[in-house]
C-alpha cells in the first residue's frame, strides 16, 4: 500500500538543508506553513480550502475576470458568478486536500465510488499499455492517488511549477502517493514515456489546457480549443488502449470516478474530439469543478495567441459568439 503522506516535516527539513540556497526566506516560511497545514484533519483542510477559495473567487482580479468571461461566453451560465466562486472553492479544497491524501485513501470504500472498477481491472490485466486522458476536474491528484492505492501503477506527464518552492511541494506531493512524474523539460521525457508504454504501464496526462506542445484544435464548447496530441501519437505507435478518466466531487469529501474506453479504430483527431465531448458533458453536469480561470481558448488555429487583455476584449465584444454563429452556418 502506498504511503500518501505527501508533505511531511522530514521532507521539508531535508529539502531545506540540501537545497537551502535555492529557497528565499519567504519560500522557506511557506514550506514550513505547508508542513503545518498538511497534518491538520482532512475534513478541516477541505472545508478551509473551499471557504478560502470561495472568498478568492469573489475578488475581481485577473484570473477571476477570465473565469467569469469564459463561463459567460462558453458555458453560457445564467449565474456565472456562482460558477466562478465554486470553481475557485473547488481549487482551494483540492490544494489543501492534496497536501496529504492518505486519510481519504484509507476510507476510499466509502469516500470514492467507481462503477467501472471491474472494467479497469480487465484493461490493466490485458497485455497492452494504457493511455489515460484526464483533466483538471474535481480533485485531479486524488484520481491518480486512488488508482495507485488500489494497485495500478501510473506514470504521468507534468509541467514544472515556475517557483522552486512550488515545484518542490508538487514533486513531493506526487512522490508521496507513488506516481512517477515525467517532467516535460527532461530531455529523456519521450524516451521514458516509450519505456513506460513498452512496460505495459498506465501513462496518464492532463490534456485539457492550452500548452506549448504539439496540439490539434478539436471543438470544445463549440469552439476550436488547442489540445495536446503528442501522447496519443506515442500511444498509437505502441498499440495502446485509450481511456478517459475524470474524478468529480459528489458531496462533502465524497467523489466519483468516470472512465470510458475509446474505440480502437479512432484516429488521433477523433480521439481528441471525443475526449473534449466527454469532458464538456461532465463539466456541464458539474460546472464549478473545472479550472475556468485557465485561458483555454486563447490560441487560434491560425497560430495567433491572444494576450490576456485581447482575450478578455474578444469575449466582451462577443467575437467568440460571432465565430460560433459563423461556424454553425457553415456546417
Structure, described:
It is a single chain. The chain has 15 helices and eleven strands. It has 331 residues and is of the alpha/beta class. It has one domain. The protein has a seven-stranded mixed sheet, sandwiched between helices. It has a two-stranded antiparallel ribbon with strand order 6-9. Strands 7-8 form a two-stranded antiparallel ribbon. It is globular and about 50 Å long.
Task: Produce the secondary structure layout.
Blueprint: H1 9-18, H2 25-38, H3 42-56, H4 62-75, H5 80-98, H6 102-106, H7 108-111, E1 112-113, H8 117-125, E2 130-134, H9 140-149, E3 154-158, H10 164-176, E4 180-183, H11 189-198, E5 202-206, E6 215-216, E7 219-220, E8 223-224, E9 227-228, H12 230-237, E10 241-251, E11 254-261, H13 268-285, H14 308-316, H15 319-330
- Pattern of helices and strands: HHHHHHHEHEHEHEHEEEEEHEEHHH
Helical content class: 40-55%
Query: What is the topology, as strand order, of the major beta sheet?
Result: 1-11-10-2-5-3-4
| Termini separation | 52 Å
Q: What is Rg?
A: 20 Å
Instruction: Name the shape in a single word.
Output: globular
Low-confidence parts: 1-21, 325-331
Strand content: 5-15%
Average pLDDT works out at: 88
SS-based class = alpha/beta
**Total domains:** 1
Number of contiguous helices: 15
Q: What is the assembly state of the chains in this entry?
A: single chain
What composes the largest sheet? Answer: 7 strands, mixed
Number of strands: 11
Features:
15 helices, alpha/beta, 331 residues, disordered N terminus, two-stranded antiparallel ribbon, disordered C terminus, seven-stranded mixed sheet, 15% strand
Amino acid at each position: 500500500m502506498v504511503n500518501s503522506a505527501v508533505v511531511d516535516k522530514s521532507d521539508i527539513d531535508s529539502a531545506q538543508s540540501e537545497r537551502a540556497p535555492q529557497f528565499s526566506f519567504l519560500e522557506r516560511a511557506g514550506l514550513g506553513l505547508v508542513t503545518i497545514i498538511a497534518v491538520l484533519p482532512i475534513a478541516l483542510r477541505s472545508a478551509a480550502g473551499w471557504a478560502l477559495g470561495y472568498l478568492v473567487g469573489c475578488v475581481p482580479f485577473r484570473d477571476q475576470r477570465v473565469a467569469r468571461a469564459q463561463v459567460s461566453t462558453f458555458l453560457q451560465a445564467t449565474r456565472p458568478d456562482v460558477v466562478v466562486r465554486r470553481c475557485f472553492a473547488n481549487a482551494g479544497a483540492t490544494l489543501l486536500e492534496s497536501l496529504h491524501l492518505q486519510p481519504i485513501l484509507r476510507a476510499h470504500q466509502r469516500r470514492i465510488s467507481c462503477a467501472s472498477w471491474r472494467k479497469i481491472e480487465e484493461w490493466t490485466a490485458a497485455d497492452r499499455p494504457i493511455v489515460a486522458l484526464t483533466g483538471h476536474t474535481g480533485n485531479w491528484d486524488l484520481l491518480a492517488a486512488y488508482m495507485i492505492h488500489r494497485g495500478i501503477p501510473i506514470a504521468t506527464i507534468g509541467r514544472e511549477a515556475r517557483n522552486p518552492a512550488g515545484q518542490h511541494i508538487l514533486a513531493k506531493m506526487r512522490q508521496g502517493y507513488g506516481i512517477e512524474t515525467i517532467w516535460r523539460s527532461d530531455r529523456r521525457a519521450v524516451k521514458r514515456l516509450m519505456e513506460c508504454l513498452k512496460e505495459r504501464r498506465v501513462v496518464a496526462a492532463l490534456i485539457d489546457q492550452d500548452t506549448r506542445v504539439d496540439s490539434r484544435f478539436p471543438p470544445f464548447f463549440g469552439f476550436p480549443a488547442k489540445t495536446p496530441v503528442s501522447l496519443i501519437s506515442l500511444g498509437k505507435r505502441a498499440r495502446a488502449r485509450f481511456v478517459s478518466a475524470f474524478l468529480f466531487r459528489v458531496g462533502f469529501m465524497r467523489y466519483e470516478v468516470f472512465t470510458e474506453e475509446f474505440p480502437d479504430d479512432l484516429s488521433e483527431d477523433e480521439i481528441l474530439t471525443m475526449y473534449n465531448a466527454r469532458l464538456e458533458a461532465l463539466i456541464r453536469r458539474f460546472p464549478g469543478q473545472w479550472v475556468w480561470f485557465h485561458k483555454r481558448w486563447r490560441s487560434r488555429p491560425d497560430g495567433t495567441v491572444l494576450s490576456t487583455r485581447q482575450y478578455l476584449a474578444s469575449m466582451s465584444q462577443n467575437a467568440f459568439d460571432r465565430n460560433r454563429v459563423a461556424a454553425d452556418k457553415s456546417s
